[in-house]
Amino acid sequence: MHLTPSTLRGEAVVLQPLSEDQLPEIKRAALSAPDVWRFIPYSMRDAADVEKVIRLALAMQSRGEAISFGTRLASTGELVGGTSIRRVDAALPSVEVGGTWIVPAWQRTRVNTEAKLLQLTHGFEQLGCQRIELKTDVRNLRSQAAIQRIGGTREGGLRSHMRRADGSLRDSVLFSILASEWAAVKERLLARLASAEGATLAVRVAG
User: In this protein, which residues make up the domain named N-acetyltransferase (predicted)?
Assistant: First the structure.
């Protein structure tokens, strides 16, 4: 399975595949809110860190291993975060949705819910995935709750799964959604977006 960048459009957000010319915008947004990187397992302290991460993402994208997106408001085009789809198993096939960050002003809105709906729809309905994974730091309780709200099933923990930016070992919590569950998950997400509650969801799902 080769992941080909494509723009995913919703009513509130547009997920635009990463490109070199977005670097200045991403740097400004990413460095404007240091706290969103609290649980991300790599350093995002300065412009050099951001550029390094973005260039790695662009390299993976060029090889068809991932699609990294800038999350933009559909109404204004403002960049308010980012997220990605990464290949896990080309034969199954399965992908991981992760690396999600949203600037504070747009947390607890419908931005992340719709972004996840767009990514999951792309994974199951365009890519033909049988399984989509989501992971987060065991300490990130807000992220775990948010993943469960969008329909992820908690499978368990991955011990000493990766090293955090500070050098400590991170345990990760693994969630998944299966193709057989997708219709019900999609219906629930659409209902949440249509309701008043959909505008006030806790949305930070930083992996």
Answer: 13-152
**Distance set, CA 175 to CA 37, 144, 154 (Å):** 20, 9, 4
150 and 136 in contact (C-beta within 8 Å)? no
Cα separation, 79 vs 128, whole angstroms? 29
30's tokens:
């990413």
Place of tokens 């494509």: 6
- Residues 75-93 have pLDDT tens digits of 999 999 999 999 999 999 9
Facing residues of 178 across strands? 131
How far the first Cα of the chain sits from its last, in Å, is: 23
CA nearest neighbour of 138 among 106, 166, 160, 110: 160
Q: Name the pTM for this structure.
A: 0.91
Phi, psi at residue 195, to the nearest 5°?
-90, 165
Pair 138, 171: CB distance under 8 Å? yes
Burial of 202 (C-beta count, 10 Å sphere; 0-12/13-18/19+): middle
CA angle, corner 106, sides to 104 and 110, nearest 5?
140
Specify the pairing of strand 94-102 against strand 131-137. Answer: parallel
Q: What is the DSSP letter of 168?
A: P
Cis peptide before 17 (omega within 30 of 0): no
> What are the residues facing 79 on neighbouring strands?
72
φ, ψ for residue 203 (rounded to 5)? -120, -5
